[in-house]
Design a protein that fits this description.
The complex is a heterodimer of chains A (444) and B (90).
Chain A lengths: L2 E9 L2 E2 L2 E2 L1 H14 L3 E2 L4 E4 L12 E10 L3 H15 L10 E6 L4 H10 L6 H10 L4 E3 L5 H9 L8 E7 L13 H11 L7 E2 L4 E2 L9 E7 L2 H8 L10 E7 L21 E8 L4 E2 L5 E6 L4 E6 L5 H7 L6 E9 L8 E11 L3 E5 L11 E2 L6 E2 L6 E2 L5 E5 L6 E3 L32 E2 L1
Parallel strand pairs in A: 5-13, 17-19
Antiparallel strand pairs in A: 1-6, 1-7, 2-3, 4-6, 5-6, 7-8, 9-12, 9-13, 10-11, 13-26, 14-16, 14-18, 15-16, 16-17, 18-19, 19-25, 20-24, 21-22, 22-23
Helix pairs in contact in A: 1-2, 3-5, 4-5
Chain B lengths: L19 E2 L6 E2 L4 E2 L4 E2 H6 L11 E2 L6 E2 L4 E4 L2 E4 H7 L1
Antiparallel strand pairs in B: 1-2, 3-4, 5-6, 7-8
The chains are: A alpha+beta (444), B alpha+beta (90).
Chain lengths: 444, 90
Amino acid sequence: MTMTAVHLGMDDIDSPRGGCTTHFASLLVEELTEVGANWLDYPNLIRLNPNIPYRTRGNGAIALRFEIEAADVDRILPRSNLLLKKYLKEDYPNTNPGMVIATGDVPVDLLGFSKLTLWRTVPVALARRLVAKLALPYIAIGNGRGLIGALSAIGNPLLQDHTYEYIAYRSIELTSRARGVVVDSVLKMNQEFGDRLFSNIDSSTQKILIEPHGPDPVIYGIRGETPLDVIAAADLVQSRQDKERWMVFRTNQGTGAHLDHRVRLSDIRPYMAAVVEGEVTAKSKIIEGGHVIFTITDGPTNAECAVYEPTGDFREIAAMLIEGDKVSLDVGVRPASRMHGLTLNVEGLGILQLANEVILVNPICPHCLKRMKSAGKEKGFKCIKCGFKDPQAKKTESLVERQLKAGMYLPPPRAQRHLTRPKDRMERKNEGMPSNFVNKWHDP
Amino acid sequence: MLFKPGESCEICDSREGVLEQCSMCGAYSCENCRDDEEKICLTCQEARCFICAEYLASRACDRCGRLVCEDHGVKVNEVTVCDLCRANET
């Protein structure tokens, strides 16, 4: 019996009206297990560039990696297609699912493609060229945009840093009802597991982040460092809706994998995820809606930066920036419109060097050492206490202690991207493929 | 890693042929990854607003799924509706 390694990538099997690519993957895992798939890895949930406009929610694609009898490889895609057709919502015109199969080692071309889709946008034409060049069997529905995520997921074997997510699903028939996740149970879970979990709670507001709000089948998702942690943590979470199924994914969430490129301001492109450095050109300002806007320069080029109101305290940090502050920014690039040029949406703020903040103050009386008052326009200053007058005196510069400190600042977890490396994970890295599986990582 | 544009096609990484800058986004692209007639790269061709085609899209319409720029799609309570769908609804 010859076994073949199979990588099955998929994306865009959802819509704003329901469905979820991870949920579809859990159904497929059940089916493939029944036909004898020998799993080589947990299902990989690969988040791609969060700045592209045509994502449904978190821009996540899936790769399933398994061994199967060589004679059965050709049956996988038709079988998956049957399941896909049953699953798809026909009422939304912009669901463009894609599924791709690669066998053996992951093709080198896909490794490069996958790195690109973490921080740039790519056209469907490139994905179609790749499947043709590599002669990969595929399914593409609609405009075929799902091929991009499907290929990207296959091409990212998560050899660098990775994390895990346990996702609990409800019945697809009950997706219009409230999930009813019990807040206290989540707070307790978070307390018990400490830094073995991340981004499940927003500590400043005590808001839980594991429960989505759309009409999708996910009840909750728990993010953590190991499969055992997320499975054990899920035992503590209570919800009004029953779990119909669950599965553990290995993911690039919380790894900051999208921010791997430093980019000069002159080279910024729309939708990029990038790290830029520059000097603040003027004190930041707060505009209507409570958003903070400031401009940075790296010499030849200036760029407008925005920190949005929902980022809470993070916005307060940005509001304290003044001219001359040197910063490193993690940004997503918002394209220009009729109203504004390219804007850098700030998702991480590193203060490299603080400028001196200086204010002008009245001079001190040389006799009684009290601060003098103005004697009138262009008449110098006078001392109220001793009556000393100095018509030549001018205001003097005084250094103000800055409220900011150099260092890295992030928005609160409620405003972070799936890919953002949270504070709790700054010093942490899980590397390499898992060498063994936990006994039970999905049900059914 | 410092991004150094102009060394290869920013879309397919090809180093062959003449690289030209897209008139919409500035990316360098090879002849396979650009539309020479419109002088734009294939990424911009897909991502521009379907109503005006003048600006790149900022989001997808939640009704029809097509991409719209900030001028032609209104976002209310996290839901984006393009001008065409809005006109059809009223």
